[in-house]
Each structure stands twice: as structure tokens, then as C-alpha cells.
Design goal:
The complex is a heterodimer of chains A (about 425) and B (about 800). Chain A has about 425 residues and is an alpha/beta fold. Chain A has helices at about 15-20, 25-35, 40-50, 60-65, 90-95, 100-110, 125-140, 170-180, 210-220, 220-225, 260-265, 305, 325-340, 345-365, 370-385, 390-405, 405-415, and strands at about 75-80, 115-120, 155-160, 205, 235-245, 250-255, 275-280, 290, 315-320. Chain B starts with a strand and ends with a strand. The chains are: A alpha/beta (about 425), B alpha/beta (about 800). The interface between A and B is medium-sized, with 29 and 36 residues. The structure holds flavin mononucleotide, iron/sulfur cluster (SF4) (3 copies) and FE2/S2 (inorganic) cluster (FES).
């Protein structure tokens, strides 16, 4: 099957405007602007069943329809912060097939009436930022961005913005704060961005991959999109595969592909032919899927099925953990990550991640007791449901699932 | 009244105004939801997670929008998670549980988290005893921590954010109340968080550090001992302190304060004032005070206090009895009769000023107010009327500020005016140069020094401002004395009074003229009939002068030489000054902290202050000393009781009619709820239990016909080619006699300065920071050059009370 998102893998130089256009590029955008009403565009995306690829899997068309039409101007922000450990798909899109992403973004803008869009890139993506700027300039020159597009009244400009190196700035409201030039700390929600977003104005925030799906949906129709993947999770997804696999990398596959197919058919199997012990489907924010039964690998990777394993598909950054890994080590790693990235705004996350890191380090160092393992579990649970944003909640996922599902690893690590 | 919403909190049905958040709504109903980051004066942020409660909302039928009824009552759906009460607004039919096991568990959890990194050094912490973290831990916290003590994160504990406020980073619970106060209330966004996660810390990003004249307030609302004042740090424990209600005597705003006192060994067993705290009065200062009010109180317990009457004998001042001293004064005053002059300042209470004025009237003398600013007979006539409340001003009100840098001259009015603007009022700022208030102004108009009256006159001529003034429902004009002496401020006041009177905005509730006076009770003096004298030196020369609460010798060499040629000088003050040194008789007065009395604020609110500390030596209240002198002159005045003096005053002075001490001591419920048991909520401010004060009546409301005289154009001096026009400006922190006793503020007071336009400085060959000589009319002094590109090239700004005696605009030479 040819790629829908990672088309650069088949079409050389599709990152060049002429090549992209030759392959049907910007026809969907032009058609939308010239021939469709904004809400008709939203309806197509709604009917396609496209769900956000940034982690939460929220239906994209529905999000667009929430934009508050009583308050103007509207903004769109592309979330290109891509900071989840184990996630590296947006980067490949923006490097290989940037114009499809930009076209999707432009179509989204037209659908919600935004005349200004921002691309918020993680700070380390500064080279990407420069190349996107060049693409944007080319598009302006080609009349694909700017004032009165295609002879209509619709105008659009796109700007890139670099973050300053914080995982939290991938969270949509922290991202908005950062974009406004403030500290990257999440806002209290509600109100949600489609009502009160950038500079207090209605704003739609979507992931890079989400936008990149849009041109093909507009070109081929909602039904075409629904014919790929599962009913619950239509379309393709880029799975960022990493961990103890032979061939880590991005794999664009229909949603609902099994773990087994991803790991063994595409990923070349586990290194040293060891056994899969656990899977982290959503990077460091995952609950650890316990693979104590080989059949678990036959679970389809779609939003609903992964839930049955008491985990979330999230951004689909599949980290494979084999039986050489002790979970106390893994949990110590994730906890340190979250301690380092906690923005500090709310008490449970700021204090809890610090406390958890102290305990997990003690456990990992062999200086702890079983009571400390219980304490770690209890502290994580004490955080749950109380944090201001999802980062705090994410930080407890590996801890709770790790201890509850792999208790033996922890007991082995402690003194008594 | 705004729309009411009915909800149920812990089974109790409560009706509250729509738009409130659940914490504030519960508080109104007497239900306490513990908070750290929420503060009723600040926007909610939902950071600390202390206010977690269970919230249920009635389920609505999708089709009809009506509540779904189940078993005869609306069906309530609870969220699976606890929610923050501070960020959720009340809704009709909402059900809130604050006492459930789930809520208690959440509160216990939040406290355990907060305490994991807290030093718990309560025994040496200044906040101990009035600490929200202590109180809420006692009420909701775990008895024991599961955190290992050795794993606590250690951080710096003595960080001066500026020289007034210290930060203890270990104690900070990252609630951002201080940051938000500075951003939202003070408008000086100088505090910030740095770093993130557990190492997130408060920093000051201004130079000098914590550059805000409202900084002390952050120590009141900081829920822990992370922010403390240099003044009070390690000085006393809160529970040892006595608390006396008082009124700040530093400026015409009249902020309500509490004087915390303690008897201590350090001062030989004396009872002394340990700190000044705000006292709630939502119509005056809410729960805030400025740093001058908070820190410049030391003069009352200063070493230079006068304790005994002194009489000059053989060229030296020697101890004397009250009888002897007052007799000598009386004899000299009687002897001069027509040449008897009283010079009193607005530092005195209404009672003092009333007795002094009565004495002058009966003895045929003159009673002058010691001030460079005129126009008070007009504020007494068309000043704001009863019921005036800055807190209620918003849409429909137009506020004009002219010739005043409000931030420097009346800090809390600056806050009130800023807030009124934020609530929708129109703000017009008229000043020849940029001031801080400009950033909130709807219209900023620049005029040239000397054109003040014209600028006011033109307000109603020009389109936009004319509309803003003439179409407003209420108009308040605050006028000051920037660039003005007696004559200039007189014409400005007249122009303002005319504008208000002619357009029906005079002397009513929320309408009228306010003088931004130099001292706390200048307005009181004007109501009593005091006047100012343009050529004060001439008015003192050769006279028998009775100086009360003023230090002209220190302030102005011209006045010093005039007094040297006076027939006789009696000086009555709380402390030794340059003027007491030249006196023939010195009479020791009690500080306002030692006695009772009343002040009339600039917005004509009469407020009581109460004794806080014992009397120093043999000193007496000013009104009593005046009465004793009067008796020796054959004039009978009340000299025993301030209450009685006030009653006489209320019978005599029309605007005071109907007022008495009991009336002034009345209180109404104040929102937000503040005070000792509510410290976790509003901070350590004191509740008002001793009176909100009462307004004087305006001439218009008394049905009197008001006519305003013609505006006299004042002649501005014309500097020669090698001269600049030096204009006086007013500075909050200055080198005045009482301020200099606050050593803590010396760094902020700094040196005398002169501000020049950069081009003027270049022309004179001087640079910013350079010390130059400023001279005019035989006076000269050193000043440090500052640059200000918002002024004209021909102007030199010279701050008052900074060592260069400038009363009014004058042609001056500035030399390197
Ligand atoms: C801590 C945290 C980090 C996040 N990081 C990212 C990110 O790097 N990229 C991203 O697209 N979404 C990220 N998200 C999700 C966004 O908040 C948001 O849901 C998403 O951008 C919405 O786009 P979508 O609807 O297209 O998925 C993060 C969320 C959280 C709580
Ligand atoms: S949960 Fe963590 S990252 Fe999110 S607001 Fe709270 S401290 Fe910040
Ligand atoms: S801030 Fe409160 S709890 Fe902390 S040390 Fe001070 S008194 Fe104790
Ligand atoms: S210093 Fe005080 S007010 Fe400021 S964030 Fe820390 S605890 Fe809160
Ligand atoms: S989160 Fe509500 S009081 Fe702090």
C-alpha cells in the first residue's frame, strides 16, 4: 500500500512545491476556498471520522465545529511541539512532506475562518522552522497564501514559532501561553481554546499529523477515509516504533493493525529474539501493557482496543520493552522525566513528581523496602485526579501500572 | 442588584450573586473552603489544588433544556473527579459538597504534598501564628508526613527581593499570589517565577529589586512566611502584639491601618509600634496600604522625641513647666495681638486645627496652613459629597487627574483610579510629562507648565474629552500641585471647581473636586477655615509665630531667615527639628499613635484614630496645648477631651454637622470577609471593627448656592537663555523630617535629583547620574541628573522636600 501521509517515501522531492502540486497538491485547498462553504469543509472532516493524532484522539471535525462564531478573529495553531519520548512522526512529516501538512493547516483555517495560523515548533526544531518558513514564503509567492486567495475574499498567513524546550508546551493551553510570550504553564480549562484561546480568541489546536490527513480526505472524500482503519478509529496512523526492536522507525499503517504486525512484520522483531514483556503505546505517558500472554500482541492498535488493555493509544509511540528490562528501572526513568518536565504550577504534580522520583530512585538503588513500593504507588494515586493538567496524570501512569502489573520487579529490587 | 443564583452547599441552600466562584459563594454563606492560591481580590488560577470539592450539576433534558426530575427533585450529576472550587462559577441548582470523605482526602493529600518540601521552621518563622499553612494543616492536614526528612529540597532562605522584602525560598508554596498582586492590583509586574517544577522560584526582575511602592502588601497575602518585610522580620511574634486601629498619616488618602504594638526589653520595657498593617475599608483602601504608610512610622518612637516643654533662657533652651511655657507663649502672643500668626500643618487632627483656628479668631490672629498648595476653600465647597466610593466608580464615571503624579502622591488613590478605569470608568490624565497613570488613561493630554487652568478649561471644548466629561453621569477631578505654587494651584483649583460646578458635578456623591494634598489632614484644615499664604516669609517676619507640626526652618532657608526676624516663635511638635532649635518656647506634642483624634481625608471622609502606645514624657495632644495657651490669653477652649472638641467642632463647622465619634465608629459588613480567623482567605489584613468614618456634607447638598470666583491667570516666570524653568514635582519618598526617621527607606529616597530633557542635558554638557548645582533666587543645592524625554527642553523637574527648597516654578540655573 502506498503512503497517505509519508508520501515522500514513494515520491521523491514531494517537499518541492512543483512536485507536490504535480501530485495533486493544493487542489483540495483551492477547491475548498473557491467552491465550498467553511462549514461544508468541517462537515467532510466530521464525516470522515478523523480523530486527533496529538494524543487524546478527539474527533477533529467536532472540535472545529466548536469554534465560537460570536467572537472574532479566530486562530489555528498547529501543535508541532512533538516532545513525547518515543514520538518522532511529526518531524518526519515536516521534513519529508511539509506541503501536505501546510495544505491541511490551510484547509483547517478556511474551515474555521482563521486568517492567521501559527505553527508552534519545539525549540530543537529550529532547522525545520527555517525550512518551513521557506516553504511558507514559496506558497505566498505562488498565491497559495496571502491576501484574497484565488480571487476570493479569503486571506491567510502562516507563521512559525519556536518553543524554548519544555515538554509542557505541547499541552495545548501551555502552548498558547508560550506562544503569547508568557511562561509555558497550562491554563485552567474550561474555557477550552475553541471558545477562549490565543489572545483570548477562539482557537483550534491540532497536531501536525492530524492536519496532514486533511488534504487527502478533502480530495478523496469522507467515505474513502472511513474505508481505512476501523469504524472506531478510521484512517492511517504513523506508529513511531522504538525500544528493544530490531528496526525502530516510523510506520504508517491503518489504525487497527495489530501490535504483532507492527513489531514483527515491520519492526523485524525483538532484539536478540527476546520476549516482549511490556508495551508502552503512548511514550512515557503510557500505562504499561502487561504482555504476559502472547495473544495480547494480536490486539489491534486502535483507540478502543488499546483501552481494553487498560492503556491508551495516545500518540502511538510504541515502545517495546523486553524481558531484559526490570520495571523499577523503567519507572524510575519515566518518573525522572516527569519530575524534570513538571511545570510546577500545581501542587500535586510539582511536589508529587519530586517525591516519586526520590522514592523510585531509592527503590532502583536497592536502598528501599517493600513499604516504599507501597508508598510510591500510594503517592501516585494521591496525585491522580487532582492535577491541573494531564502531565501530572501522565506521570502516574507508568508508576501505577508498573507496580500493579509488575510488582515482582519492584520487590526484587528492594531490601526486604 | 445582579442576578442571584441559588445553589446547595453542604445541604444548605444559598442565594448568591451570579458570577461568583464557589469558594467566594461558600464564604458568603459562612462555609469555609480552604484555599492557598485563591484570593478574593485576585483572578483565580487553580494552582494549589487546596480547594478541591465535589461538584454536582443538575442534568438538563437535551430537547427542552429543563432540569431532569428524579424522585421529585432535579437529578444531579457529580463529576468523577474533585473540582477546584476557586475556578468553578456558581450555577443554578449546583450541589457542592465540601465535607465529604473524598474531599477531606483530597485536602489531606494536597497538604501532605505541600509539606513534603516545606521547612516547617515555624519556631523562627515570622508568619508563625498567622500562617495559612499552619492553620489549614491543623484543620485538614495529615498528622504525620510520609516524606523522608533528609530528602527535603533545600533552597536559599534569605533572599532580599529588594531592601524592603525578603524571600525564603524554602517556605514558598508557589501560589503566585504575590506575582498576581503585582500584576493585577499594583500594576507593577516586577515579580515572576523562574525555572519550573519543584525548583520554580519567585524572582524580582526589576532594578532596583522589587520596584513597587505596594510591595509590603505581598507579605500580607503570602499564605506562608516566604515573604517578610525587612522591618518586621525577626522582630516579634504575631501573638505577642497588641492591635490599635488607626489612620495612616502620610498622605491625603487616609488608609485605615492597624498599629501592632509590643512591650519589649529592647526599648527598656516601653510599648512600641512593631509594624503597620492595613485595616479593611473597602471604600478607602480595601485591604491595601503603600510602603510609605507601612514603613515610615518610626518617627513616633524616634530618639528625637520632645518630652518636656522648653523655654529659651540666656540663648539656650531649658526645661520648663507646662504652666510657665504656655504662659510665656500666651504673653508674647497677646503682646503682639495683631501680629499673632499661627502656622499649622495638615499633620494635625481636626480637633487640633479647630482649637487653633478658634484661638486665632478670638485673639485676632491669622491661621495659616503650612502648604504650598491652595484651593482648599473650593474643595470644601465643591469637594466630593457624602456616599463617595471609589470602589463603586466604573461605567458612567469620568475621572480627571490634573497636575498630579498620583502614583507618587497618593498611592492608594492610584490603585482606586486604575481599578475604576478597569471597571469601565473614563480616565483623563492631564500632565505636562509622562506619569505612571498614563498607561491606564483613556485620554492623556499634555500642556505646558503654567497652562494648567487652560488645560482644564479646554477639556470641555475639545470633542472627545468634552463628550467624556459632559456626557458622564459622574465626574471626579483630582488636582495636584505638580509645577504649581500657591498662586498656580489656586487658579487650577478654580478652573476645576468651575468645570464641576457649571456642569452639575459638584459636591455630590461620587462627584466633585479632590485635592491631592501634601499631608493627611490638609482638607480638615481647609474645612476649619485655614488659608495658605503665597509669600509666607513676609507673613512671618516680625510676627509672634505659633508653629504647630511643621519644620519650615529645615524646609526652606527663606523661611528660616524670616523666622530669625520674628518677634517671638513658639514651636509645638512631636520631635526635635531645625525649627524647634530656633524657638523661644518648645511645646512637646503627642504623636498620633499616642492619642485619639480624627483626620479628614482628601475625599472628605472623617476618620478616627485611636491611642496605640503610651504617651511620651510630658507631651500633650496638640488641641490641649492650644487650649492651655488660649486660657492664658483669656480664651476658653476645650482642652481635656477630643470627643468634646469634636462635638463643638460639629456644632460650629457646617460641613461637620451631624457627625460625632459614635457615628464615625460605625461599621458595615465588608466584603471580602477579612480578619484574623479568615487569614487563609484574605491575608493578614485586619478587619474593620472601629469605624469606616463618615463624609462631610457638600455645600451643594446643604442647599447653599455655590459661586466660583473668576480664574486668575498666574504669571509663569520666563527663564533667560542660560536658565531653565525649574518646576516642583512631588515624590513619595522624600527627605522630609518624618520620612528620614525610616532608615529602611533611605535607599529608595536617594539623593536630590533634577530631571532634564536629554537634549537639554546635552546642551548643558551633563549626563545622567552626574551631580550638578541647581540655583535660583539665592537658593542652591546639589542634585543628581535624571533624564526624562517626556518634558520640554526648557524644563528642569525638581522634587519637593529633597533638599532644594522649591515652592513654585522659578527660573533656575543648572551647572555641572
Ligand atoms: C503534557 C502534554 C504534552 C503534550 N504534547 C503534545 C505534543 O507534543 N504534540 C501534540 O500534538 N500534542 C500534544 N499534547 C496534546 C495537546 O494538548 C492537544 O490535545 C493536541 O495538540 C490536540 O491535537 P489533536 O486534536 O490533533 O490531537 C500534549 C498534551 C499534554 C497534556
Ligand atoms: S499537572 Fe504538572 S505540568 Fe500540569 S499544571 Fe500541574 S504542575 Fe504543571
Ligand atoms: S510558613 Fe507557616 S508553616 Fe511554614 S515555617 Fe512559617 S509558620 Fe511554619
Ligand atoms: S512568595 Fe508567598 S505569595 Fe509568593 S508564590 Fe510564594 S507562597 Fe505564594
Ligand atoms: S486551586 Fe483553588 S484555591 Fe488554589
Amino acid at each position: 500500500m502506498s503512503h497517505i501521509l509519508l508520501r515522500h517515501r514513494e515520491i521523491p522531492d514531494i517537499n518541492q512545491l512543483s512536485v507536490y502540486k504535480k501530485n495533486g497538491g493544493f487542489a483540495a485547498f483551492k477547491n475548498a476556498v473557491m467552491k465550498m462553504k467553511p462549514n461544508e469543509v468541517t462537515d467532510v472532516v466530521k464525516n470522515s471520522g478523523l480523530r486527533g493524532r496529538g494524543g487524546a484522539g478527539f474527533p477533529t471535525g467536532m472540535k472545529w465545529s466548536f469554534i465560537d462564531n460570536k467572537n472574532w478573529p479566530h486562530y489555528i495553531v498547529a501543535n508541532a511541539d512533538e516532545s513525547e519520548p518515543g514520538t518522532f512522526k511529526d518531524r518526519e512529516i515536516m521534513e519529508g512532506n511539509p506541503l501536505q501538512f501546510l495544505e491541511g493547516l490551510a484547509i483547517g483555517c478556511y474551515a474555521v475562518g482563521a486568517q492567521v495560523a501559527y505553527i508552534y515548533l519545539r525549540g530543537e526544531f529550529w532547522e525545520l522552522g527555517a525550512s518551513l518558513d521557506a516553504k511558507i514564503a514559496e506558497m505566498e509567492e505562488a498565491g497559495l497564501l496571502g491576501d484574497k486567495l484565488f480571487g476570493t475574499d479569503y486571506s491567510l498567513r502562516i507563521y512559525t514559532h519556536l518553543g524554548a524546550g519544555a515538554y509542557i508546551c505541547g499541552e495545548e493551553t501551555a502552548l498558547l501561553e508560550s506562544l503569547e510570550g508568557k511562561r509555558g504553564q497550562p491554563r485552567v480549562r474550561p474555557p477550552f481554546p475553541p471558545a477562549v484561546g490565543l489572545y483570548g480568541k477562539p482557537t483550534i489546536i491540532n497536531n501536525v499529523e492530524t492536519f496532514t490527513n486533511v488534504p487527502m480526505i478533502m480530495a478523496n472524500g469522507a467515505e474513502w477515509h472511513k474505508s481505512i482503519g476501523t469504524t472506531d478509529s478510521p484512517g492511517v496512523k504513523i506508529f513511531s516504533l522504538s525500544g528493544r526492536v530490531r528496526k525502530p522507525g516510523n510506520y504508517e499503517l491503518p489504525l487497527g493493525t495489530t501490535f504483532r504486525e507492527l513489531i514483527y512484520t515491520h519492526g523485524g522483531g525483538v532484539q536478540d529474539s527476546r520476549k516482549v514483556k511490556a508495551i508502552m503505546p503512548a511514550g512515557a505517558s503510557s500505562s504499561l501493557i502487561l504482555v504476559d500472554d502472547d495473544k495480547i500482541l494480536d490486539t489491534p492498535m486502535d483507540y478502543a482496543s488499546v483501552r481494553t488493555l487498560k492503556a491508551d493509544l495516545g500518540s502511538a509511540s510504541i515502545i517495546v520493552v523486553d524481558d531484559t528490562v526490570s520495571m523499577d528501572w523503567l519507572v524510575n526513568k519515566t518518573v525522572h522525566f516527569f519530575k524534570h518536565e513538571s511545570c510546577g504550577k500545581c501542587t500535586p504534580c510539582r511536589e508529587g513528581t519530586y517525591w516519586m522520583s526520590r522514592i523510585s530512585e531509592r527503590i532502583h538503588d536497592g536502598a528501599a523496602t517493600r513499604a516504599d513500593v507501597d508508598l510510591l504507588l500510594n503517592v501516585a494515586k494521591q496525585m491522580q485526579g487532582k492535577c491541573l493538567c494531564a502531565l501530572g496524570e501522565f506521570s502516574t501512569m507508568a508508576v501505577v501500572s508498573g507496580i500493579e502489573r509488575f510488582r515482582k520487579d519492584f520487590d526484587n529490587a528492594v531490601k526486604a | 442588584m445582579s442576578k442571584q443564583v441559588t445553589l446547595t452547599i453542604d445541604g444548605k441552600s444559598v442565594a448568591v450573586p451570579d458570577g461568583l466562584n464557589v469558594v467566594d459563594a461558600a464564604k458568603m454563606a459562612g462555609i469555609e473552603i480552604p484555599v492557598f492560591c485563591h484570593h478574593p481580590k485576585l483572578e483565580p488560577v487553580g494552582m494549589c489544588r487546596m480547594c478541591l470539592v465535589e461538584i454536582g450539576r443538575p442534568v438538563r433534558d437535551r430537547a427542552t433544556g429543563q432540569f431532569v426530575i428524579e424522585n421529585g427533585a432535579p437529578k444531579i450529576q457529580f463529576m468523577p473527579k474533585l473540582e477546584t472550587a476557586c475556578t468553578n462559577k456558581v450555577e443554578e441548582g449546583m450541589v457542592v459538597l465540601t465535607q465529604s470523605a473524598k474531599v477531606a482526602d483530597g485536602q489531606r493529600g494536597t497538604l501532605e504534598f505541600l509539606l513534603t518540601s516545606h521547612p516547617l521552621d515555624c519556631p523562627v518563622c515570622d508568619k508563625g501564628g498567622e500562617c495559612a499553612l499552619q492553620d489549614l494543616t491543623m484543620a485538614h492536614g495529615p498528622g504525620k508526613s510520609r516524606f523522608i526528612f533528609e530528602e527535603k529540597m533545600h533552597l536559599a532562605k534569605m533572599i532580599p527581593l529588594g531592601e524592603l522584602i525578603y524571600l525564603d525560598r524554602e517556605r514558598c508554596i508557589q501560589c503566585a499570589r504575590c506575582i498576581r498582586f503585582q500584576d493585577e492590583i499594583a500594576g507593577d509586574a516586577v515579580l515572576e517565577f523562574e525555572d519550573r517544577g519543584r525548583t520554580m522560584q519567585i524572582i524580582s526582575r526589576s532594578e532596583p529589586g522589587f520596584d513597587s511602592i505596594f510591595s509590603g502588601n505581598t507579605t500580607d497575602i503570602c499564605p506562608v512566611g516566604a515573604l517578610t518585610t525587612t522591618d518586621f522580620r525577626f522582630r516579634a511574634r504575631p501573638w505577642e502584639l497588641g492591635a490599635a486601629p488607626s489612620i495612616c498619616a502620610q498622605c491625603p488618602v487616609g488608609c485605615n491601618i492597624t498599629l501592632n504594638t509590643r512591650r519589649e526589653a529592647m526599648t527598656n520595657g516601653e510599648i512600641v509600634v512593631k509594624r503597620v498593617m492595613p485595616r479593611q475599608n473597602e471604600e478607602v483602601n480595601e485591604i491595601w496600604i503603600c510602603d510609605k504608610g507601612r514603613f515610615a512610622y518610626h518617627y513616633a518612637d524616634g530618639k528625637q522625641r520632645l518630652t518636656k516643654p522648653l523655654v529659651r533662657k540666656d540663648k539656650k533652651l531649658a526645661r520648663a513647666s507646662w504652666d510657665a511655657a504656655t504662659k510665656i507663649a500666651a504673653e508674647n502672643f497677646l503682646k503682639e495681638k495683631k501680629d499673632f500668626v499661627i502656622l499649622a500643618s495638615g499633620r494635625l487632627s481636626n480637633e487640633d486645627l479647630f482649637n487653633l483656628k478658634t484661638l486665632a479668631d478670638h485673639a485676632g490672629g491669622k491661621a495659616y496652613l503650612y502648604s504650598h498648595m491652595a484651593g482648599g476653600e473650593l474643595t470644601a465647597l465643591v469637594g466630593v459629597g457624602a456616599g463617595t466610593n471609589f470602589g463603586a466608580m466604573g461605567q458612567g464615571t469620568t475621572i480627571v487627574v490634573v497636575a498630579s503624579d498620583l502614583y507618587q502622591e497618593a498611592p492608594v488613590w492610584y490603585l482606586r483610579v486604575k481599578q475604576a478605569k478597569e471597571r469601565g470608568a473614563t480616565l483623563i490624565v492631564l500632565n505636562p510629562r509622562a506619569t505612571k497613570l498614563d498607561k491606564y488613561a483613556s485620554f492623556t493630554e499634555r500642556y505646558e507648565y503654567g497652562d494648567e487652568a487652560k488645560a482644564v478649561h479646554d477639556l470641555t471644548k475639545n470633542g472627545e474629552t468634552a463628550e467624556a466629561v459632559l456626557k458622564a453621569s459622574n465626574v471626579v477631578v483630582l488636582y495636584g500641585s505638580e509645577g504649581l505654587g500657591v498662586a498656580g494651584s489656586q487658579s487650577l483649583a478654580t478652573a476645576c471647581a468651575k468645570l464641576l460646578n457649571e456642569n452639575g458635578f459638584a459636591g455630590k456623591s461620587n462627584n466633585g473636586l479632590i485635592g491631592v494634598w501634601e499631608r493627611a489632614n490638609d482638607q480638615g484644615a481647609w474645612e476649619m477655615g485655614f488659608t495658605v499664604e503665597d509669600d509666607l516669609a513676609k507673613a512671618l517676619k516680625g510676627k509672634a509665630v505659633y508653629i504647630v507640626g511643621a519644620d519650615p526652618v529645615n524646609d526652606d532657608p527663606k523661611l528660616a531667615s524670616a523666622l530669625a526676624e520674628a518677634e517671638f516663635v513658639a514651636v509645638q511638635d512631636v520631635m526635635e527639628t531645625a525649627t524647634t532649635e530656633i524657638a523661644d518656647v518648645v511645646l512637646p506634642a503627642q504623636a498620633f499613635t499616642e492619642r485619639e483624634g480624627t483626620f479628614t481625608s482628601g475625599e472628605r471622609r472623617v476618620q478616627r484614630f485611636y491611642p496605640a502606645v503610651p504617651v511620651t514624657g510630658e507631651s500633650k495632644p496638640d488641641f490641649a496645648i492650644a487650649a492651655q495657651i488660649a486660657r492664658n490669653m483669656g480664651v476658653i477652649l476645650e482642652g481635656m477631651s477630643a470627643v468634646v472638641v469634636f462635638d463643638l467642632l460639629a456644632e460650629t463647622v457646617k460641613s461637620f454637622e451631624g457627625l460625632n465619634y459614635a457615628r464615625l465608629a460605625e461599621v458595615e459588613a465588608q466584603l471580602p470577609v477579612a480578619g484574623r480567623s479568615d487569614m487563609y482567605y484574605s491575608g493578614t489584613t485586619y478587619a474593620n471593627k472601629h469605624g469606616l468614618g463618615a463624609h462631610l456634607s457638600g455645600a451643594a447638598t446643604r442647599g447653599e448656592k455655590v459661586s466660583i470666583p473668576r480664574v486668575q491667570k498666574e504669571a509663569v516666570p520666563h527663564p533667560k537663555d542660560n536658565e531653565l524653568l525649574a518646576v516642583p514635582v512631588n515624590q513619595l519618598y522624600h527627605r522630609g523630617t518624618t520620612m528620614m526617621t525610616a532608615e529602611l527607606l533611605h535607599e529608595r529616597i536617594g539623593a536630590a535629583s533634577v530631571s532634564l530633557h536629554p537634549d537639554a542635558a546635552a546642551r548643558l554638557g551633563v549626563q545622567a547620574g552626574q551631580t550638578v548645582n541647581v540655583s535660583f533666587n539665592g537658593t542652591s543645592g546639589a542634585a543628581v541628573v535624571k533624564l526624562d524625554d517626556s518634558i520640554d527642553e526648557g524644563i528642569a523637574l525638581v522634587p519637593r522636600s529633597m533638599g532644594i527648597a522649591i515652592r513654585e516654578p522659578v527660573a533656575a540655573k543648572v551647572k555641572a
